[in-house]
UniProtKB/TrEMBL annotation:
InterPro entries: DUF2484 (IPR018919). Keywords: Membrane, Transmembrane, Transmembrane helix. It holds the Pfam family DUF2484. This is DUF2484 family protein. The chain crosses the membrane at residues 6-23, 30-47, 53-72.
Amino acid sequence: MSLSFIAALIWMVVVNLRGMFPSKDHHWKFAYAMIAIGVPILIWVYIDHGLLLALILLLGAMWVMRWPVIYLTRWIRRQVGL
């Protein structure tokens, strides 16, 4: 396994573990930090392994952090007017 893939798996484990514990702000500060860390890791995986593995990891990250994705799609729909 490459270092980029190991970093992505560690990111997934950390996000999953943190999501199991309660939070007063419903994990939003943590989500922003993990998105800021996860995007460079995803780019790193893309450079090392190509598009297919990067897309699989992106789908996994979207599954784990589903609420930021849901709010982003709602915001985009409001902007477009759908």
